[in-house]
Amino acid sequence: MAEQTPHGENFDHWLDAYAARANTLSVSEVRALFAVVSRPEVVSLAGGMPYVKALPKELLESAYDSLMDSRGDLALQYGGGQGDLALREQIRELMALEGIASSVEDIVITTGSQQGLDLLGGLFLDAGDVVLAEAPSYVGALGIFRHYEAHVEHVHTDNDGMDPVALQAAIDDLKSQGRRIKFLYLVPNFGNPSGVTLTEQRRHQIVEICKREHILILEDNPYGLLYFGEKPPNAMRSFESDTVIYLGSFSKILAPGLRVGYVLAPPAIRDKLVLANESAILSPSSFSQMLISEYLSKADWQNQIDIYRGVYRERRDAALAAMAEYLPHLETTRPDGGFYLWVTLPKGIDSKAMLPLAVKELVAYTPGTAFFANGTGQQNLRISFCYPTPENINVGIKRLASVINLQTELIETFGKH
Amino acid sequence: MIPAAKRDNSLKIQVLAGGISHERDISLKSGRRVADALTEMGATVVIREPDEHLFQNLAADKPDVVWLCLHGASGEDGALRDILALSGVPFVGATGEAARLAWDKSIAKILVGRAGILTPPSVTLPRETFRELNPESVLAHVTSSLAFPVVVKPARSGSAQGVTVVHSADQLSKAMIDAYVYCDVAIIEKFVDGVELAISVINEGAGPMALPAVEIESTTGQFGYQERIVAGEVNYYVPARIDAHVADKAAQLAIAAHEELGLRHLSRIDLIVDAQGTPWFLEANVLPGLTETSLLPQAIVATGASLGQVYHGLAVAALHGRG
Question: Does residue A380 have a pLDDT over 80?
């Protein structure tokens, strides 16, 4: 010990070698806390994991058998960068359910719609470009925009979705500053994390604004078919094909483990997307694509979506009932589909700071700060009702109420900060 | 020097990792790293969770030694160690009693202070204190005595969770709330400006030995969990960039604190060296992180020894009741 030289070496021997953009990759400090949710004692209202137990495995087993019998060698081989043609045909039919008329030529299959977003980020975003997003917005998209060093500007969003008046004001303001706006990113149906749905009228207003202002809309729609009552309005892509890039996914209506999503883009953008996809991954998984294709042709997939709707509706009801029972004074969204409730906490409570206490009380949620690029969201949290059983949702929200009460007591003791 | 160990195919070791704590993630990573290193040494290793099957697993695995990799309350508050001791299974690390005393930073400070080891002045404030006394006047009184900056931290928590360096009165309330989120007892400690060091101490039976000091350099001026896990906000250097005689004094303090607290086979002592080169004890880690980027393994590697060699040596010491 006494002979040590005073020339310490940094732990990371490659610290000087990283690209500058590696600094945009950051670990959330709440991520480590989520390790505890794998323990059965903890009720996790945190992750947005689809309840795949509601998917009869025989459906995929028979799709697998049929695939191996008919196209096994192809399924195990590389595929094309644009994706399997048969699946693209089926995706076209799927999108027609939301009013979209499209050509299979304009569909690009990706490794989850997350990769579609990443490809679009790489194609369009230069450092300093602006992306407009809902307030709050999907955390996975924010991570991609940050990685491409774009600036995310959140636009006021209420129970009817993004406010077009606020959108126009934000655009005017940014343009007056000489900023370049590349995307408007939206999850219009049962948004993540808000659970709110953009009204039909606002969809038209927003498309009009973006057409006029020459801003591409990224319409990210993983939850659109998971409605509990009324079908949501048709997709924006159904009435505007040049300004809207539509992203879809099999993660919520089938299974996220298959990692298959898709992008419907105007032809010129589609060409570049295919090249970017080939450059990034050569081709999306042939096996997953063809398995899904077999499933869509052989199984009653519409019935399966109905089953999912029933499961999630029951859980949404359980979550809202528990909120009314244990936390009646808190404001919460009342989603008509999807996976999430967005809760507003009493003034002064910081959802991120409170999370360790919640974990100690064996309940986990996602703090609101995860869904804002500007450091706000402390007073909100997201409750995912998709995965736990209705009974566990009740237990979890009951525990959450006691945590909020404890935290309220602390804040009352030390005063608001 | 750490003596070289031989491969040993006879030792059966159960690694306990996971648990329900804020540090579960780190614990699982630590457990896998320790298991890999022990396996390389030829030991038969199984990783288990400390759950409802604890006794069943002990009966089935019949380990010669349990290697505890449980961070946070489940591993460091002493309870599980007492249970293992009652079951007659040797385990690596401090006894239940020693762990219980050292895990509570406020008690550890008292114990090392009594032994003449320097530790910054502090006040320990259980949450209940404020049920009777007026928070504003208590905090004003405390901070007028200690003077800003101060460090507010939970008495029982790890990985710098809930720790805030507070520079002015208006930041104090939030810091107290953040600390109480982790533990019902908070410590307000005088901030000592200087070089932050982590010195790991191991004892394979021949007496405690300090490993090279790791220097923790914050690039933001804060020392919380956030800074520790976000790349670029903290730099670690081993050995620390300090004079040899200062490193020597710091190592002596670490060994003295380890012995005073009775931490047996391993510990990590966190301290700060002020501008005059005087080391101050901050806290003892009963079960320091053992992941690939944790400070104790990095310090072992800096000595030229292998992790397997040291971890195996500690298991043998536990088996024979040494250390």
Answer: yes
